Amino acid sequence: MKNEQKRRVQETFSKNKEAYVQSTTHNNPDDLKLLVEWLQPEQHWRVLDAATGGGHVAKAVQPFVHRVYAADLTKEMLQNTAAHLSSIADMAFIIADAEELPFLDDYFDAVTCRIAPHHFPEPDTFVSEVSRVLKPGGRFLMIDNTAPEDDQLDHFYNALEKRRDPSHVRALKVSEWEALFNDQSLIVKKHLKRQKTLPFSSWVTRTQSCPVEQRAIEQALLSADTNTKAYFSITSSDSGVEHFSVDEYMVLVEKGSC
């Protein structure tokens, strides 16, 4: 099951590699600027950007550190990202599973991972691997879509994402992420819970090419109950769904020094 899920991830991102590079959601300059401000990188650092995708975080962090390792499970995605970032020095591109990182213990000053963990079959293993490769006192900054704490809204959102994107596993609740960090003695230093607005058309077509499925996903949003429509800020016109919003969690944690 785990290997099958990772194969789906590779298939999805291989087909849509350029869409992720060009995505306005993934290439949000304000978001990337805030990430660097929180991380407070130093010139001597080695940084791992796990599940780098289109390489947006790796590119944003690179000017401030010694070396960035941009890692991704999907070779085709990584090859395309490397081509886009070929002019940037001091960046290495590594084919790597975020749940089985091919790096030594205590190797990185910082690890980043943005809009990716909802694709991971075993997020607990991922967090354990992040802790292992971080130096004592090292920082981990993660941004990802999260599920509402309400179980019904959680199910609605994750079912919607799974239908749009077969490589989606599950967006965790913030409380679940906090428990995983606590299990690995990763101390939350700063966090931000927010909603981000997604343009429906580009969101649904990025990973779902079947028009029948696209319409079914749109209908699920249009026919949602009043509470669900309000929570996800679903807006529509005569032509269909225009935008909706999802929860996003930005968190900076630190590995204990002992």
From TrEMBL:
UniProt xrefs under PANTHER family: METHYLTRANSFERASE, RHODANESE DOMAIN-CONTAINING PROTEIN
Organism: Halobacillus kuroshimensis
Keywords linked to the UniProt accession: Methyltransferase, S-adenosyl-L-methionine, Transferase
Gene3D superfamilies in alphabetical order: Vaccinia Virus protein VP39
S-adenosyl-L-methionine listed as a keyword: yes
GO molecular function: methyltransferase activity
S-adenosyl-L-methionine keyword on record: yes
Name of this chain's protein: Methyltransferase domain-containing protein
